[in-house]
Amino acid sequence: MNLRQLRQFLAVADELHFGRAAERLGMTQPPLSQSIQALEEELGVRLFARTKRSVALTTVGAEWRAHARRLVAEADALPDVARRLARGQLGQLRLAFVSTADYSILPLIVARFKAAYPEVEVALQEATSDLQIEALLAGSLDAGLIIPQAGLHVSLDYLPLVREPLVAAVPEAWIADGRVTPGRGGTLDLDDVLDEPLILFPRRIAPDFHDIVTGAYAVRGAAPQIFQEAIQMQTIVALVAVGLGLALVPQSLTDLGRSGVRYLRLSGAAPEVETGLVWRKGEALPTVAHLVEMAGDLAREG
């Protein structure tokens, strides 16, 4: 069975006349009749009930027509599907993101991409920067939003997208009992809490972010009292909420409202953290090319 036979079956099913169907197909009647007979023999099913004066679909033929028409329509659409895949207007984009990006650049870039390419499936997954890099190198991920690491692998490209200051996430209970006293305008002097327990990402999964935080302590001649490590920003904030320690988090995370936590701007020059897009050099996927172009536009917009 082939597409040519299916088209011939549909022509006869529509016309219910071999002569008219042959004319519609641009062929003579005898080879059309032979082709339909061969199709029925291959299927082991009668599709048409024939008499000398009439042709009618059998019950099976009538039911089968919808399936055949759908298959032929899908086959006819394949050339356009191939062209749209080549243009990056169809397909899938596997995009990972660090938890902090969920509150900053991720919603904007995904919304713009989906608006421009609504038929591309964006498969999102949350993952730490180190796991994203591993997945990119293994080919199981197309692009990622990461906190950059020094010495990025030579086979990867990186585009910085957003820089934002860190703020302090402090247990409200600490403020209520006077353990922490916010300054004017809801600020916090980091010098006042250097000895307080800190909740932080493990260095192995986010070395640059870890070093930014510990570096803020180092310039003050102190070492942070790391009480607990967690790999998800939401978990870090949850631990702050129950009073286990404070955390330094990107400013965009203040949109994560949670009872028991107060976000305080750091007085003076606050350390900043960067989030950017990473992908494989020479990536051939057009969907990735569109994403990179769109990310570049966002970076230029500031």
Task: Describe the protein's architecture and organization.
This protein has 302 residues and is of the alpha/beta class. It folds into three domains: 3-86, Arc Repressor Mutant, subunit A (Orthogonal Bundle); 91-161 and 274-301, D-Maltodextrin-Binding Protein, domain 2 (3-Layer(aba) Sandwich); 164-272, 3-Layer(aba) Sandwich (D-Maltodextrin-Binding Protein, domain 2), CATH 3.40.190. 42% of the residues lie in helices and 23% in strands. Strands 3, 4, 5, 6, 7, 10, 11 and 12 form an eight-stranded mixed beta sheet that branches. A two-stranded antiparallel ribbon has the order 1-2. A two-stranded parallel sheet has the order 8-9. Helix 1 (3-15) crosses helix 4.
Name given to the CATH homologous superfamily of the largest domain: Periplasmic binding protein-like II
Mean of all residue-level pLDDT scores: 92
Kindly, what is the distance between the CA atoms of the first and last residues, rounded to a whole number of angstroms?
Answer: 58 Å
Question: What name does CATH use for the topology of the largest domain?
Answer: D-Maltodextrin-Binding Protein, domain 2
Strand count: 12
Radius of gyration: 31 Å
At the first level of CATH, the class of the largest domain is Alpha Beta
- Note the run of SSEs as H and E: HHHEEHEHEHEEHEEHEHEEEH
What is the helix tally? 10
Which secondary-structure class do the elements indicate?
alpha/beta
How many strands, what sense, and barrel or not for the largest sheet? 8 strands, mixed
- Which descriptor suits the 3D outline? elongated
Total discrete domains: 3
Proportion of helical residues: 40-55%
